[in-house]
Amino acid sequence: MSAATAPVTGPSAPAEAAPLPAALKKAARRRRRIPYLLLLAGVAWLLVFFVAPMVYQASTSVQTGSLDDGFKVTWHFATYWDAFHEYWPQFVKSLVYAGISTVLCLGIGYPLAYTIAFRAGRWRNLVLILVIAPFFTSFLIRTLAWETILADQSPLVSFLNHIHLLDVTSALGITEGNRVMATPLAVVCGLTYNFLPFMILPLYTSLERVDGKLHEAAGDLYATPFTTFRKVTFPLSMPGVVAGTLLTFIPASGDYINAELLGSTNQKMIGSVIQSQFLRVLDYPTAAALSFILMAVILAIVMVYVRRAGTEELV
Questions:
Q1: Per the count of CB atoms within 10 A, which of 2, 85, 188, 264 is most buried?
Q2: How many CB atoms lie within 10 A of CB 81?
Q3: pTM of the full predicted structure?
């Protein structure tokens, strides 16, 4: 037999892969199905509590009729234009109030989160508990407390009157005369207070991950503390800034409790209008249309914000 046709034997011969037993194949298929099985609960939750209500609301927004005669789907898309044309001032107020409160939350929350992350030391856990503590109280109760704080004869308002600060705010149009209640300032104060923890916690999480050695390296390169913050700390904390601003702005835009309790009819936000249309006027198509318009506006703002202030461009 020639060398060309001789079978290859010995340790150099390639070993044929032994077929997997049926039990091993079955176990492998079972392991591949486990991630999908784990997703079933979350998918079911989203289908029941998000997709189904969204579909129902979309159907309601194109219906016509009345509560007595019933509502029918007539594909009346003019409801969207009529709702926006009538209530666009409330949309503007909602976005302005939410934007101002978001900026205030960032201005108040960033120094606090920075202090907790880098300066709190052994008091860090205590300060974090104090930040989270308001969540243990009802949102409604916390807002009602601001009625007492901002009452006309409260110590705070009396002090503001004494230093004539309310004269300045009244000239700017954010308060009226010598009172704070039922003014834009009261609504913004309530929004800022109630959503401040949503800003602080993402900021703290992001700042806490910043390696302190980077600050030391910047100091070794003769960077001033302000330059270190501008060039090192703030860029690295941008994921927390983006997350915090979104977690603050989005719920603040749709809030109606602060406007109802701390404002007046002149400070009505779009959430107040939607709540009124659903529960008082009983005009369900208009309420559903307003809800979808608000969702579309917020989604557009968020998309533009994330694209222009995304962490990929700033870190």
A1: 188
A2: 11
A3: 0.83
d(Cα 314, Cα 104) in Å, to the nearest integer? Answer: 22
- d(C-alpha 159, C-alpha 168), whole Å: 14
Burial (CB count within 10 angstroms: exposed 0-12, middle 13-18, buried 19+), residue 148: exposed
Q: Is beta strand 63-66 parallel, antiparallel or unpaired with respect to 70-73?
A: antiparallel
What percentage of the chain carries pLDDT values higher than 90? 52
Buried b (16+ CB within 10 A) or exposed e, 282-311: ebbbbbbbbbbbbeebbeebeeeeeeeeeb
Nearest to 139 by CA among 201, 204, 197: 197
Q: What is the total residue count of the chain?
A: 315
Using alpha carbons, select from 126, 307, 113 the residue that is nearest to residue 210. 113
Determine contact, residues 191/98, Cβ cutoff 8 Å: yes
Q: Which two tokens stand for residue 178?
A: 């010598």
For residue 11, give both structure tokens: 């340790």
**Hey, what are 189's tokens?**
């104060």
Q: Count H helices and E strands in the chain, helices first.
A: 16, 2
Contacts of 208 (CB under 8 A, 6+ apart): 117
- For 108-156, what is each residue's pLDDT tens digit? 999 999 999 988 888 888 999 999 988 888 899 999 999 999 998 899 9
Neighbours of 112 (CB within 10 A): 17
What the block records as the tokens of 254 is: 């749709």
Determine the 3-state secondary structure of 71 from DSSP. Answer: strand
CA 191 to mean position of chain CA atoms: 13
C-alpha distances (whole Å) from 133 to each of 64, 142, 177, 197 are: 46, 11, 34, 9
